Every structure is written in structure tokens, then in C-alpha cells.
Amino acid sequence: EVQLVESGGGLIQAGGSLRLSCVVSGFTFGDDAIGWFRQAPGKEREGISCIDASDGSTYYADSVKGRFTISSDHAKNTAYLQMNSLKPEDTAVYSCAAGRACITTGQAMGHLTTYDYWGQGTQVTVSS
Question: Do 48 and 37 form a contact (C-beta atoms < 8 A)?
Fold first, then answer.
């Protein structure tokens, strides 16, 4: 059974930092791409970052570029999202997902090409 389990969310003041973790089980970590997406109430899902687990290439949506960093640790089957300089508009449920590949150009950069598996998400709330 494929599972992705996120952790690390919470309540934080604007300007602060959080690191989210995504533990993956049930498939070979390294064959797929891992991405983070978020969804705020009343808004569409937004793919914000993606890492090609085979070569470590990373991609970001413009909304988080320069503030968020995605990484992965194959030995731990874990992906991370380091979030710095958080803003109230970053408030959302953050989820990780596994898919075929990262979208590497255009407005959809940061999304996965397919969302094959995903976790339940972790809430991030940024207060002003």
C-alpha cells in the first residue's frame, strides 16, 4: 500500500519559518517525482514545488520561489519543504504527492504531470 504522510505544520507568525516532512512508503523512492501542493479554503489547488527524485532537479511556482526549498532524503524515504519568510497568504493545507514527473516550465511549473498518490495534508496557518 502506498502511503504519504505529512507533518510539520502549525501556527506561525508572518516572517517565520516551518519545515514540512513527507514520509513515503509502498513504492521505490527515487523512481518518481515528489511534489508539494496547497489548498486554501475557496481556492484551487496550487502546485508549489516539485523535485525529480532521480536527479534532484527542483522546480517552484513563482508564488514561493526564493522563499521555499524542496529536498529529499532517499535513505529516509522522506521529502521536505523548508518554508521561510512566511506570509499570511501562505495559509493553507499543504500536501505532498508522488507522480510521474515535474512540470518544468510555464505557469504550471511546480506541479506534477500526474498526481498518482498523495497524503492527507498538514495545516499551515500564518498570522499577521
Answer: yes
Give CA–CA dist 121/4, Å, rounded.
9
Dig out the grid coordinates for 32 from the structure: 518518481
Residue whose grid cell is 504522510:
5
pLDDT digits (tens, 9 = 90+) for 50-100: 999 788 899 999 999 999 999 999 899 999 999 999 999 999 999 999 999
Is the pLDDT higher at 117 or at 54?
A: 117
Contact 48, 64 (CB under 8 A): yes
Give the DSSP letter of residue 88: G
Distance CA 46, CA 36 (A): 9
d(CA 83, CA 66): 10
